[in-house]
Amino acid sequence: MSFTNLYLVAAVVVASVAFAALARLLPARAAAPAAPQPQPQPPPPSASRHAALQGLRGLLAFGVFMHHSFLWSRYGRGFGWLDADVWHQFGESRVVLFFMLTATLFYGRLLDARGRGIDWLKLYVSRLLRLGPAYWLAMALMFAAIAWATVHRIDGAGSSIVQFSWSDILGQCLAWLGFSILGMPSIDGYFATPTVTAVVTWTLPYECAFYALLPLLALPLRVKLPLTALGFGLIGAIGLAVSDADPVYCVPFVGGLAVAQVMRVPRLAEVLRHRACAAAALVAMTVAILQFRSVYAPVPLLLLAFSLAVVACGNDLFGILNWRLPQALGSWAYSLYLLHGIALYTLFKLVIGDERAARLTDWQCGLLLAAFVPVVLVISWASQRWVESPPMRAVPAVVAAIRRRLPPRGAGAAATQAVGGLAAGGASNERHAA
What whole-number distance in Å separates Cα of residue 231 and Cα of residue 218? Predict the structure, then answer.
């Protein structure tokens, strides 16, 4: 076994200790909103913070859809999977902000749980039921699209010179079902398999790795930690060590850790809620996209982290994030993120076809994609309502059912006490989950 990313695990440990040291400077009740003041702009309640972040998440997901629509406007007409400079940075910035947002929310839970602990079983069950159903729906649709393309010999599907057995094809499909952690292999030799989803699933292994490492991030914060959760964190560290994860894509999570602390400093949060900071955040995002070849560099990452910090403190960017459309998109964001690529593939490859798509002008393609936006949004809404929401409502029942099958709590109390004895001082969990 080659521990190619052992240095990345060491970086996680160093970062967790460093941010835990910074957390000691936070107010004793870091998660509690500041007491209302008789001023024109009192600190907003957590609901306002939640609404701002939800609106931002919706616009980010729609931005990813826009980016891939541009890519498909060229790829679908035979020009290859090519990007333009501005669109490239635009797409990168959406992913960076998603990674930062994940870290902000879940590291925030750890900050708020110092000395009191959190329900680790509920956290991981809710993550699985949050991410799993919509993802597996997307995989089922992807498999169906590839099967159709194979039967009808579309886009080279089914014409591989290498013959794969059914067991090989099943193994390739199973690799996709694991949140792409085991890779994104071509199915039955179909070279364009990843493009069916617009290759969006590459981000999920990084998200899952962050969730797995949460117990290690919690330990130096003196959060009460049962040995089972600590063991899960160690497994996550081993998995990261043997993975081929690119450290560049891990840096945005560090920015999210910083934002989680910034938003818990009352005076600084009050400043960031000012309208001037809303304008500064919009300018910072624009500069990060337009003035740099890649957003994975120190300056654009700092600009994006600043923009997220402004929103995380409850700034709705002149009310834009509270509009009904961004709020609705925020509710549908995960399904929109997963399903838009499959919808675009179906439109260009299975409905229009390569020959007719190649004859489309830029204007015709643009109008076609604009007309297709409501279709994708309806699909995302339906997925959120009937695929995502029911499992999330079932989280308490599932957690209760698992606990009934676990050993009595008394048996694990000593283990919890052994690790939890490190803990001190905390407050309530952040309500919002990405």
Answer: 13
